């Protein structure tokens, strides 16, 4: 569907500007339908038992939204079947049933008033040329802070009207968030998030050390409570105590995360490098991990997004494979580099550091890896790291990579064995 449609010869009594607005809204409805179906489609293919080649072909069709393309091969036939099924469950949006009208600056302008009872007026163009309608606007207290010139969220020249079932009309002002220009000076830091220290930075800072102790206490309460509830056959949802405890944990994690990230994101910073990872951590119950993963992941993701929007700090994601086991000095990656949870000591070169800070450094170093690294699997990453290490190992003769247990770094069989061993080690 084109972005702009020439409507000079259309009837309906609307001007080109008004038609533009209508077309834009209709296009937005259709675009959102297409976007949702693209997600559904990808999900169906991903969870299917189709073979990999066919899956890849379907992903490509899906990316182009070419679901109905008349090509007679297996992938296209399959694509048509999937989209037919999805369309049956989700019909195209019907603009006739639409009760909201989104009026952009072309047909409705928000103008500050020159004193008087109202702060703002909406100037809405009508079907009668040259006779706009002025509607007074009261500012809701929720909107008030965003009228401050320092707030990144601003009033947009955009009015949304909704006609309710009982024919009353509600108007809404829209705000926009202006994205700040990315910073062009400053440092890049790597950020590792665990729980023992909520955040570790590549320049050697540890934050939120108390959080883990606090969580351990709450975890004991949580475990006791769930046992009690299971005993008396009360579901978690029904228990007010459970809900309150849950909320307390989530709020605490959220506040701590925000507080620490605000401290880290100071004026000297240009870029934060993080890994695509969740909060899961040893030493806490399954229940607790579930709450933390949900609360932590969402908070961190949202906060980082805000930092990039409001402060112009770039956020770079890197592949998390082996970041906690790779040596920042010689590149040797092995579970034996971690004699215990807090310590990193390289088996090959002896480089020793706090484990979380070491991971943050490795994360920072990964930003210079090619973009394709983000999507490759753990096995390939390990064999790549082993190959690089073999080339620059400081002491080839005594290097652990020479040991029989690791095999030669290029032998595929040995690689697979190491992978299993590392996996087992991580689980134990
Ligand atoms: Zn090393």
Average pLDDT: 82
Low-confidence stretches: 408-416
The share of residues in helices is: 40-55%
Number-wise, the strands total: 13
SSE order in H/E notation?
HHHEEEEEEEEEHHEHEEEHHH
Distance between the termini: 55 Å
The 3D shape can be described as: globular
Rg, rounded, reads: 28 Å
Tally of helical runs? 9
Biggest sheet character: 5 strands, mixed
How many separate domains make up the residues? 4
Computed structural class: alpha+beta
Strand order across the largest sheet:
9-8-7-10-11
Hey, roughly how much beta strand do the residues contain?
A: 15-25%
The distinct ligands, each listed once, are: zinc ion
Explain this structure.
- With 428 residues, this protein is of the alpha+beta class.
- The chain has four domains: 80 residues, no CATH class; 78 residues, no CATH class; 132 residues; 93 residues, no CATH class.
- The chain has nine helices and 13 strands.
- The strands form four sheets. It has a five-stranded mixed beta sheet with strand order 9-8-7-10-11.
- α6 links the parallel β10 and β11.
- α1 packs antiparallel against α2, α1 crosses α3 and α4 packs antiparallel against α5.
- The longest helix has 32 residues.
- About 2% of the residues have low confidence.
- Bound molecules: zinc ion.
- Zinc ion (ZN) binds next to loops.
Features:
428 residues; alpha+beta; 4 domains; five-stranded mixed sheet; three-stranded antiparallel sheet; 41% helix; globular; binds zinc ion; Cas12f1-like_TNB; DNA-binding; Zinc ribbon domain-containing protein
